[in-house]
Amino acid sequence: MPLEPIGVGTTDATSSSGGTTGEPTTCTDLGACFGHEVELVVGLAPSDLRWGEVAGDGIADVVVRGRLAGAPTRVLVGTSSEGLSVGGPQADGGLGAVLVDVGGDGRDDLVASEGTALAVYDGASGLSVRVALWEVGHGFATLRALEPAGDGAIRLAGEDRELGALATIELGGAGPVVTAVPYGSDPNRSYSSNGLDVGDVDGDGAQDVVVVVDAYGDGGHLADVRVWPPGGPSYAATWFSGEGHQQAIADVDGDGREDLLVLEYFGRVHRFASTGPAMIADVDGWTAASANAMAVGDVDGDGIADVVLARHPNDADPRLDLVTGWDEGDPVPYTLAVDHEFDVVGVADVDGDGRGDIVGGSADRGSISVFHARW
Predict the structure, then answer these.
(1) CA gap 222, 235 in Å, rounded
(2) How far is CA 130 from CA 98, 122, 127, 133, 134, in A?
(3) Contact between 366 and 344 (Cβ < 8 Å)
(4) Which end of the chain has the smaller Cβ count within 10 Å, N or C?
């Protein structure tokens, strides 16, 4: 199944389900093909994909999180150069989670928000053994790893949507230390958030935290994209709609600064980028009709991150769109026809060949599919 520019006729390349053979006509344009699809039944409806080094083989492992029979679960999908294998489901609180090496053994552990506690599942056990459970007074919808503290302590960022606060969490020997910063202080408004990412937005070499903040109350619903640089006050760009979206962060135009990509429900990919000191703006985007999931990663092999979109499940013609060439001006869309819809999507090198593969999760089929890069 070669990727083709949208609107261009079908090539005669071999697909994973059979068909005609021949040289794909679009690989030269895109620089990448994904002709080898592997689908694995994982026994749950995937809602989240994470990448890390769990198996200890030096190759990215995929942790699929989702629901099974109405109960929150997680499944470890181990990887190797020979292929993928699926581990058994483990209990999970169903909130935010992040892969990070807490034990210092070279394997990533899973730190998961469970109610108002933080749990740690040991990577050496295949994430089957919970080794810590700390009450922290917060439930985090999203967790992301930050650069370590000066003493090497693990640091995380989390969004507490119920309390309307951004939290930094430092994991030390005595347990987590949580510092929470409210999103706002207007007594006539309630504050929440709709996504959190970390990256170097301003290109100064230090990680920033980026959150889409919602405010409800007098004057209706307001939203902004808020940036917290380390050690400094936050700044923001007003956004017309913060609801019903997915987001990701990556340098898609190759300028050395991370961009925030926001997929608006049923509509458009917005690219928020730094436009000056302590400034961020909605600089451009791409119409993404019926798209419902998004991921970023270098798919075409040029060293610059691309955007991968999954079409909305009610679209009768399911596809994966790849939007690349942001560094050359107007982004160029390509499409990959698939035989079923995806609810989550990601990009990672899961077979250790140095090339980014596309991974999609289907709730209806209870499976993940890996489209291996072959270019």
Answers:
(1) 15
(2) 14, 6, 7, 8, 11
(3) no
(4) C
Residue type, 88: G
pLDDT of residue 242: 57
Residue 230: other Cβ atoms inside 10 A: 12
Burial class (CB in 10 A: 0-12, 13-18, 19+), 375: middle
- Residues 292, 311: contact at Cβ < 8 Å? yes
Nearest Cα neighbor of 258 from 201, 342, 300 is 201
Pairwise CA distance, residues 38 & 43, whole Å: 16
Position 315: which residue type?
Answer: D
- The amino acid occupying position 64 is V
Helices (H), the chain: 27-30
Alpha carbon distance 261, 246 (integer Å): 8
* pLDDT at residue 84, as a whole number: 61
Contacts of 316 (CB under 8 A, 6+ apart): none
Name the helix (H) or strand (E) containing 192: strand 189-199
Per-residue pLDDT at 88: 64
For residue 239, what is the enclosing H or E element? strand 235-239
Give me the amino acid identity at 343.
Answer: D
Residue 318 is predicted with a pLDDT of 85
Return the pLDDT at 360: 92
Cα 83 from Cα 274, distance rounded (Å): 40
Burial of 182 (0-12, 13-18, 19+ CB in 10 A): exposed
> Which regions in the chain score pLDDT beneath 50?
1-32, 81
Contact 353, 338 (CB under 8 A): no
Question: Could you tell me the two tokens for 266?
Answer: 């049923």
- What is the Cα–Cα distance from 34 to 22, expressed in whole angstroms? 14
How confident is the model over 295-345, as pLDDT tens digits? 999 887 778 898 999 887 566 778 888 888 888 777 888 888 788 889 999
Give pLDDT, residue 194. 84
Mean pLDDT over all residues of the chain?
Answer: 80
Closest CA to 84 of 18, 32, 39: 39
Of 296, 371, 316, the C-alpha closest to 32 is 371
- Comparing CA positions, the residue from 171, 282, 157 lying closest to residue 211 is 157
